[in-house]
Structures are given as structure tokens and as C-alpha cells.
Amino acid sequence: MKKSIIIALITLSVSLFGQTFQEIDGVVAVVGSSMIKYSDLEVAYLQGKNNPETANETRCSILETMLLNKLMLHQAELDSVVVTDDDVENEMNQRLRYMIQVYGSQERLEQQMKKNLSQIKEYYRDGIRENLMIQQAQSKITGDVTITPKEVADYFQSLPQDSLPTMEEQYVLSQIVIYPTISKEDKEQVKNRLNDIRDRILKGSKFSTMASLYSDDEVSGKKGGELDPFSRGEMVGEFESMAFSLQPGEISPVFETKYGYHIIQMIERQGDRVHCRHILLIPNVSSAQLYQAKVQLDSIKILIDDGQISFEDAMMKYSEDEGKINGGLIINPNNASATFSLDAINATINNVDNVDFAAMQEGEYTKPIEFRTERSNAYRLIKVKKKMPSHKINLTDDFDRIQNIALNKKRTDLIHSWAAKTIEKSYIRISDKYKDCDFELNWNKTK
After folding, report:
1. How high is the mean pLDDT of the chain?
2. How far apart are CA 297 and CA 383, in angstroms?
């Protein structure tokens, strides 16, 4: 039944884009029942220009990638691939967490996008659903493709040796982090304030009004403390445990997370998701408390300088960063790896503009640097754990990178082989403006 509906949609597309194709403004191509709009192509082209890896891509090469994606989407529709709302929501939340990490906070992301979080989700929802369908189609084509070390070596040897790329200098960085200590008195003061707010709500004040007036979460505070619905695994453990323990309308006791002190009001349950409001109060960090964190880190640095303890042992013993379980590595938010170029260090690591990493040697570390976190400002030492000089790519130093490239090429070749056969039996129309593109595949179905 589903396939017959898809065929009907394709038939509608044929009648719509047959003789009048050129008369419809903004349509670059049609694959099955899906259109590629001129605006989508231009956005992809301009975004590519801002990425060094795709800066040389032409509109034709970008269009071919979009055509291939639409062909896989078309196949997913024919195969009745199902992507649930939960699948979309989970993927959406993962991407939003990454974007918030890149921009530093939810508020900065919303300012950059000129949309609140709910509007951002709505903006990306259809695209994410399509991407998940494409991923399933691609996974079905490539299956469990693997690559052997010999295939990696053969691939590398097949490359023109005189045109191998030069790898720019790369850095692996680790850190020791010290947060300012908040006194018991300061904590008790915040808890008492929040308990007073809770009592006022229980006596009849509206939770949303109290959130707007008092919450230190400025983003949700503007919406009466309301958060977007979330599933397990999307919030810090204490917040999540408390939220899922509540009944609709119930208000939690005051509890603590690494961000501060909260109360939650459950709005409703939506299957395995909860929808709630919260009020956050963050204990104030004084300049004296922040300075004391610097003094503590200075003392740790002296111990390391004098050889009384190694940087790694000091990190395990003293660092208050959650990442110390992974060796204190600083993760590059652009690629989720532990490697940074110099440009990436300055672009993604807070307040290191005055640090000359290029002059530092492997094993050296900085003086205490103040930086911004979601909890408060803090101090850290950053060590150059590994420094990989600029070099021509080779199997010894770059095997993992070459392996990934070779594996991706193997998958791409398999997808192109599938696409070459599928194009012949699929409805595809391309605007005359792009019929002279030198595509790798026969999208115009010329002999």
C-alpha cells in the first residue's frame, strides 16, 4: 500500500514538472517526489565556501551530492523506511547539545539563530527526518563494509606520491581544572531562597511567574521556566532522576546539580518523555573565591614544576573536571576528536588568545588561565600532551586517517555503483541551467 502511494506521488511530480519545469521558479531538480530548490543549493554552496575542506566545491559538485541524497531518500520511501518521532527527537537533541557546546550556551545559540530552542527544533525537524531516512538507505547499501590493512596500504600507494597533502601541525591538549569553592553558608542561603520561592508556589503563586522573576536560567526563565520535553539520557543525572520521579502538577523539593539548585514542576508525561518547568538558583562566586581557585592551581603548578608530582598524577588527584576520567583531554567540538590545529585552538578554547601554543614544546603547560564554564568561571592549566609537526601524510604517522579515507572511498564506490543502476529506473529531472555540469554519474540519462 505504501509503495502505491509513493508511485502516485511520483506520477503527480511528472505531471507537474513535465513541460512546465522551467516555468517553476526556484526548482533546480526533481528526484522521485522530492525537489531540490535553488535556495537550498545556494545555502549549501555558501556554507561550503566557509569550510576549508569544501571551499573549492562547485555548484555542480554540490548539486550532485544533493541529487545522490535525494535518490537515497527516494529509495528509502520505496522501501517504506520508518523513522519515528522519537528517532527524530533524539537526533535533534544530540545535535542541539553539540551546537550549544560550540556556541558556549543555549542563550548564545538562540541569539545566533534568532530563534528560541523550540523554533530551532521546528526549523531542523524535516531535514533531520530526511537525513535519518537517507542514513538507513545508505546503511542498507554499504552493509558491513570493512577494509584490511593491505587495502589501506594499496590505496595509499595508488595516490600520486608527488601530490600527497601536507598535514598542518596538530596538538593534543589536556587540562587540570579548579573551580572556586562555594561556602556552606552561600549554599544554604541559596537553598533557603529557593525553599521560600517553593513555599510561595505551594501557597498559590504561579510557578511560571516565580521562574520569570527569579530563575538564573535566563533562557527558560523567559518562558516561565518551561523546558522542551526530554527523554532519559539528555539531562544531568540528578535533574533527570528528579524529573522522572514526579507526577503531573507535582513540585519537587530543592535539589542540587553541578549547575546550582533547582525545583521542578512536572507539566505532563509524553510517553517516555517528560515536559516540565524549573527554577534554577546559582550561588554567587565572589572575586575572592575565584582568586582562591587561582592560588590553589598556582600551588599545584609549583608541585609539578618542582617534580614532586607529574602533570597526569596531579590531574587525577586535584582536577575537578569531569573529563579527567579520559586523561583530562580537551575535546575538539568541531570533530569530537582530541586533536586541534592552531586555528581550532583559538576558535574553540576559551580565553587562550595570549597563549603561544606554536612556541610551546610537547610536555609544556601554561600558567593558570581563567575560563568560562556553565557553572561559573574557573581556572585551568593546559598541557601540550602531544605536538605533531607539519608533515606530508604517510602510513606511519597517519594510518588511522588514511584508513578512514580509504574506507569512505570504498563505501562511496559502492554507493555510486548502486546509484548508476538506480538512476536508470528513477524519475529525475534537472533544470537546463545545470545540464552541462560534468557529473560523475549519468543524472541526465544521456547515452
Report:
1. 86
2. 14
Q: Would you state the cell numbers that stand for residue 379, as one nine-digit string?
A: 581556572
Quote the pLDDT of residue 179: 93
**Could you tell me which of 375, 410, 339 has the C-alpha nearest to residue 169?**
339
| Closest among 184, 211, 185 to 198, alpha carbons compared | 211
User: What pLDDT shows up at residue 118?
Assistant: 84
| Alpha carbons 342 and 357: distance in angstroms, whole number | 7
Residue type, 375: R
Model confidence, pTM:
0.59
User: Model confidence over 307-342: pLDDT tens digits?
Assistant: 999 999 999 999 998 888 889 999 887 777 788 989
Query: Is residue 129 within 8 Å of residue 83, measured between CB atoms?
Result: yes
Tell me how far apart the alpha carbons of residues 69 and 138 are, in angstroms, rounded to a whole number.
9
Question: What local confidence, expressed as pLDDT, does residue 23 receive?
Answer: 37
d(CA 324, CA 318): 10
Query: Residue 418 half-sphere exposure, CB side, CA atoms within 13 Å?
Result: 18
The whole-number average pLDDT for the span 138-148 is: 90
Q: What pLDDT, in 10s, does the model give residues 187-223?
A: 999 999 999 999 999 999 999 999 999 998 888 888 8
Show the cell assigned to 138.
Answer: 545508505
